[in-house]
Amino acid sequence: MGISRPVLVTTAALAVAVLLAPAPATALPVSAPLPGEPGPPGGPGPSRERSGGDSALSRAPLSATAEALRHGTHSFVKDRGYPRRTTLKSPAANPADKSIKLGLIPYHSIAPRLNELQKLSDRVSVEVAGRSANGRELYLVTVTAPESAGKVREQERMRERIENSPASAARDKQLKSAYKTPVFINNNIHGNEWEGTDAALKLIEELAKAKDAKTAGLLAKNRIYLNVTANPDGRVAGTRANANGFDLNRDFITASQPESRAIRQLAIDKQPAVMLDLHGYVNGTLIEPTTPPHGENYEYDLFLKNSYANALGMEKAVNGLGYTAEKDGVKPVEIPFRDQTEGWDDWPPIFTPQYMPFQGAVASHTIEFPMRVNNQSYETLPVEELRRRSAINTDIAGAAMRATLDYTHANRGSVIADQIETFRRGAAGEAQRPVSEETVPGVPGIGPEDVYTTTFPRAYVIPAGRGQRSATAAGRLVDHLVANDVRVERALMSFRLAGKTYPAGSYVVDMRQPKRGIANVILAEGRDISPDVSAMYDISGWSLGLLWGATVDKAVSGELRVLGRPVRAAAPTGSVARHGDLRLRLDDPRELAAVNSLLAQGVKIRRTADGAAIVPASARKHAALVAERFSVVFGSTRERGVAPLERTRVAAAGTAGEQFALREMGFDVVPVSTAILNAGFDWRGVDALFVSTGLNHTALTPAARDAFRDSGVAVVGLGADGAALTSAAGLLQATAVEGNGDANGVVRVSNAGGVITGGAPGHTFVYSPVWFTGLGSGVRVDQSYGGGNPLVAGHWRATADGSGGPADAAGKPSVVSGTSATGAKVALFGTEPLFRAHPKGVFAQIGRALLNH
């Protein structure tokens, strides 16, 4: 019998998972961290991101999640002159805005203030750079001397030459003289670290009104871009997170949120050479560069040279304000590279200043002003004291901004040359220069502990056809690369590389390109840095090449001869077989979203023994629509399936990222907690319980325990808290063993197949890993940690007593499942498949477990 050819859906593949189914470099706390707040660098390691606090915002609303998934990024106009005056609509006054108590500007007053500043001077331009998760406008202010449209086009041509023809740009003296150095100042990305916004507005006014020759010279040779508030939702609510409960300063590789995508686009379009990210609260004022480990994909010699010199200038300016510990409670500035040994690193590229060097910044800094005004301080200190502290913080933020402008202007020739050199090395495929006191003169204290480099491969290939485990995942990964300004080509003919033949349609990432650093960040496996430092402040592994569900081949060397064309978006992948019943692999969040959409429309679907979905031929038209919408592939099948799939409404006690990921897969999510269950939760409205944190069985009232027991809902538990609930409720006989709570990263696993891990990749993510022992009869092992050392990339050491390390986890069950005495399906995960909505390729393990209710 011949194989029927699929019907190709011709609409372009979606760049991100779209539409739901129908219906810490952050603050170093002076005092002990509050629940859900990161601990200090060098102190206790990562703890599970708790629900509550900022994450309570994730109870918000499906609509905010949908907007985050739907929104693209703003593309900045490149051929209009300056000034670019935009009359901003003023939001309604909100007396509950948390900024007001501190004597700072509330969000609703920013637009009127910017409208006035535009009238004040032709140096000030305002554009809307995007919208927040809750729909608030993100204001980008550009301060520069006026430019005609022709001059703007000339500047854009120079910017493109710097990136795309860096060798030529390096030889062009006129370019280095005429190009305006881009400086980017990012404010208030943590909503309850307010004062950068107010300092930025003061700086804009100063520059607008100044009549001196120094300011005129500064603005003639530089453009200053200010993101006035990067997190207006958090600013208004007084929360660290945005309206979806996300810490935006952890989102710069995943880019799940509209605010971080807006900043990413600004970085690509404006290509800042120098940037600041304003935070609080560390006393004394903390100014990066950081301690080791340093990101291995940077041109770190160029970066350290400029970042350290600029930090010294900012230190002088801040200390020069005259604040003292005795008089004001303000300690002197600290520069981690100089003053600390470890604990404040630039290893993960998830933070704004750690992402920016991959888009051309040769100096980027987190600035932590000193005087705490948020969290408990906000609630307990007198208003007068809060306002005194905020005024000091605003003053210090302004001093750091002005010092950075002074450094950039005084060194603009070398700053531009170093940005060009960053791109030139990438395009030429040259080796990195290890830092030393010889390669970075003027920076004292450089030692072997500061040397982190990598060997870039010749290319990466994302193969087409049978070499690709998931066309849907491959398309998403390609679109993500393009969104990060990585050059990707699609082969027009088959080709051979590193001893392997690839078919036409395969995607090629030539690593001889200006932005090779971000390409390698995204695609490389990463590195085990456990031997290098005692603990890490935040995650240490993140490989999209291993965790996003696509097949990615690394060609270490070889002659690259590919006839291809540049990719602006991945080729369409959605298709439906022409004949017979349809089979949909549920290996990807988009496939889960597609099946949930079909179930919501009343389509009768069955599942196979290995967890795939069987859609009847009668629903082919419905399948065609969701294939186009979610870019998924329906094949033909003669399988009948072993059980029906039903629409699953999920009660979720978990982090904001986990709830967001569940919604991304199309599940209806009802947030729950111990308090909500004790108040009398109606279990009749849900089919399954997802629990990772915020739900303590022993703290439930007898009535709440009985209601939960009698509900018969399926339970999917993550980590120690999820296992504790199932154990206390007597649902599954399995003992959870907690590994080192500091551990996190990418690990190897062995999958048993079946409903939960059928088709799952051989890698997953862990954060405070757990494994299971003492399994009762009937408890199935769905997945186990790999043998030997299962850690591929990240940081995982044994604890002080020698236990809890990767050797203890090797070969142990990481995912188990079974049926409780009451007939409820139960699954326990010692891994983190939904962590911060990041590891897309392993989301489906949770989705399959929930559907199997």
Concise overview:
By secondary structure, this protein is an alpha+beta fold. It has 28 helices and 35 strands. Helix content is 32%, strand content 19%.
Q: How much beta, percentage-wise?
A: 15-25%
Mean pLDDT: 92
The helix content is: 25-40%
Please outline the major beta sheet: 10 strands, mixed
The rounded Rg comes to 27 Å
Inertia-based shape: globular
Q: If helices are DSSP runs of H or I spanning 4 or more residues, what is the number of helices?
A: 28
Category by helix and strand content: alpha+beta
Q: How many strands? A: 35
* Low-pLDDT ranges: 1-61
Please report the distance between the alpha carbons of the first and last residues: 37 Å
Give the tags.
32% helix; 853 residues; signal; 7-stranded mixed sheet; alpha+beta; Peptidase_M14; 10-stranded mixed sheet; disordered N terminus; 35 strands; zinc; 28 helices; carboxypeptidase
Give a verbal description of the structure.
With 853 residues, this protein is α+β, with helices and mostly antiparallel strands. The chain has 28 helices and 35 strands. The strands form 7 sheets. Strands 24, 25, 26, 27, 29, 30, 32, 33, 34 and 35 form a 10-stranded mixed sheet that branches. Strand 2 (124-131) and strand 3 form a beta hairpin. The radius of gyration is 27 Å and the shape is globular. Residues 1-61 have low confidence and may be disordered.
